[in-house]
What does this fold into?
Amino acid sequence: MLLLAACTSSPKQSDTDKQNDAAGQNGQGGNGRVEQAAAPDTSGMVWIPEGSFMMGTNNPEFPDASPVHPVTVNGFWMDAHEVTNAQYAEFVEATGYVTVAERALDPADFPGVAPEMLVPGSAVFSPPDHRVSLDNPLQWWRYVPGASWKQPFGPQQSGELDPGAPVVQVCYEDALAYAKWAGKRLPTEAEWEYAALGGNPGHTYYWGDELKPGGEWAANIFQGNFPEGNTSEDGFTGVAPVKSFPPNPYGLYDMEGNVWEWCNDFYRPDYYRNSPSDNPKGPADSYDPAEPNAVKRVQRGGSFLCSDQYCIRYKPRSRGKGEVSSASNNLGFRCVADAPPPPEPKS
It folds into this structure.
């Protein structure tokens, strides 16, 4: 838990409003105060028109994404790309917000762990220098003291933070706090999938049926033997700056690969069996049989560590999940907004 959690473990709750409060919806964040924006700025956002689609898949590789079921969503605005380091820095400067990975750890949350080990930090992908079996992620993840959105690899990293790259090392409440400040919100899982499909359902990949259309990589994913043999054939070893790859038909970038993105829905593997068809908001509570006491939210889109060899959940309609107080250097987010649609073009 200490290795992969950004800071603290969270108690299981069943009431959505209480969880939102605990996750920062009340405006508190570290030493900062997050005020709700009067209205969202929709520049840099894309209008996603209302519509209906078949959500989920019967692909046996993704058992928690079945059964396929009809869903209708209202129109909404969505960030054209992930929230960047520059955008998050503006939020922190305006509010004084302190992310979860930067806050002191409570020894009560980590019984039996030596006090000198309880220092702020987060999970960093650290590939081994030799081939390993893929049954133990601790062989390529480690907890790095001092790792945060400001220093995704920890204090020892060299070079300046790329302002145009997606912000990473953000927990659920860190993303939620930013969204509130911007007058926006995190997308529902249904909104995210509908937007990612771009009106073109049924393909092997979000962009089509070829992994490399025209011989070019269409997303920032892992090439080579995972985890130690990254060939970086797509031009990036880790996170890529936003808009490095072509957008989908709606004009959205990086809906596959690059960084995982937080959704607002609690995670349950059985939710699709009971999901309402009209603007589903996710279940009332969280449950993951693998970690029954953890509170998890849905994550979508995969990251630069996904490939057909390992972590194939960059593919369409698949689902990810994350404990709400955990972060890593391949996890970010984008926002959506409820605002009037753009004016109809004049004839």
User: Anything to note?
Assistant: The domain at 16-129+145-337 is CATH 3.90.1580.10 (paralog of FGE (formylglycine-generating enzyme)). The helical segments are 16-25, 85-95, 172-181, 189-197. The chain has four helices and 15 strands. The first strand starts at residue 28 and ends at 29.
